[in-house]
């Protein structure tokens, strides 16, 4: 695999929207699907990183091999269909759909994610989700060492979940096919995109305030009603709460920003603090939306406590 770009002892800070330093032993940057599948066939339990917008990397470093998909950015267009490789940025796809006068991807304009990561998490905003217009997904099955294709129905999509997320040790997204809606004009699409950006600007931190997006999933109460995690955290009085360098964001309490050289332990500690305060006040156990990658014993113990609730 000599021809594949490879970096040793490389800081993943530039591959995470949280901008926490984390030294990885081995980082690979494939330039196409062929290189990606070669890596997946030969590496043991690699970490797959797109834009790093929902991954908390351990400050203690990463021992597992890391594959960064940023160069997997090929897009094929046959309106109303778009096929995008896993590393294509969500905003790029949104703008391309606009240029083609296709509707459905307006909400992607504000998501700091790659399409691969968005599919795994079934990312969404403004009552839309990436699964809404999905036709199929090509994935690499590491157990069978082959490429397979899932239809939308086979993806087992749910709120912030999919068959890929629930089998992350087996399946890796390579590319996805979408069918969008032809629009009557560019104006309506652009207006919706602008509204999405404005809403994000008014309520969420910018990438100049490093963060990992929403920290916790919105919980569902016993009556089946979806509640706002941000509102619960706010009502627990936690806006502005600071542990180490990690701060609960003032405008939207379900965001935790890297306020002042935060470590991954700062981040996990503040998440646990939020979780317990909300539980004590409302008897509701929030569940993490972000993913932790690392092998630090203390961090893993606390993270597992967070997951179990």
Describe the structure.
It is built from eight helices and 18 strands. With 309 residues, the chain is an alpha+beta fold. Helix 7 runs parallel beside helix 8. The longest helix has 19 residues, at 264-282. It is globular. The protein starts with a strand and ends with a helix.
Main attributes of the structure:
309 residues, alpha+beta, 8 helices, 18 strands, globular
What is the molecular shape?
A: globular
Q: How much helical structure, as a percent, in the residues?
A: 25-40%
Q: Note poorly predicted spans.
A: none
H-E string:
EEHEEEEEHEHEEEEHEEHHEEEHEH
Determine the N-to-C terminus distance: 42 Å
Mean pLDDT: 95
Number of E-type strands: 18
* Major sheet summary line: 5 strands, antiparallel
Strand neighbour order, sheet with most strands: 6-7-13-11-12
Strand content: 15-25%
Number of helices: 8
Helix and strand composition category: alpha+beta
Radius of gyration: 19 Å
